[in-house]
Design goal:
two-stranded antiparallel ribbon; about 45% helix; about 170 residues; globular; mainly alpha
């Protein structure tokens, strides 16, 4: 009829990818760094690599986690600073710091400071090199693009038997 269009049904792979993106967005809050989930048939974890906190021992155990399946997502330092500053703002940390800044010796968060960000990134790069993990720069890249890239890399490593790529 008039004004109608035909749209092919969406396949299971499409819905699995949507679930993976939704999981990544929900898990990327830094509150639960060792969250495991069944997504697209995969066990997925978001583990922030912060200089002061050693990563979970399971991540460093090659018998538990195959290093070929670990991807270190990196980002340009300026973009990471912007994200961290916004996160501090949303959580009210900056306002609290300003309120108490007149107090002598008041502690201030260095979480978004340039040197702290650079040290965190260097720590992640060093650990990635040491462990043989794959570094993926996500600067300016959508979550869906990153997921697609990682899926392609895993398919190459698993001789195409990793994830269906049909829409």
């Amino acid at each position: 009829g008039v004004g109608t269009s035909f749209r092919a049904p969406l396949g299971d792979a499409y819905y699995r990818r949507i679930e993976a993106v939704e999981f990544a967005l929900k898990a990327d809050d830094g509150k639960a760094p060792w969250v495991l989930s069944q997504t697209m048939g995969l066990r997925v974890a978001n583990v922030p690599l912060v200089a002061e906190c050693p990563p979970p021992r399971e991540l460093l155990d090659d018998g538990t986690v195959d290093p070929r399946r670990v991807f270190c997502l990196t980002i340009a330092p300026a973009e990471l600073r912007r994200i961290r500053s916004a996160r501090l703002e949303r959580r009210g940390v900056k306002a609290t710091e300003e309120k108490y800044s007149l107090l002598e010796g008041a502690a201030k968060s260095n979480y978004a400071e340039r040197n702290y960000v650079l040290r965190d990134l260097k720590n992640a790069f060093d650990l990635t090199e040491e462990r043989g993990w794959t570094k993926v720069d996500v600067t300016g890249r959508a979550v869906e693009e990153t997921a697609s890239l990682i899926s392609e890399l895993m398919n190459e490593r698993c001789d195409g038997a990793f994830i269906e790529n049909d829409a």
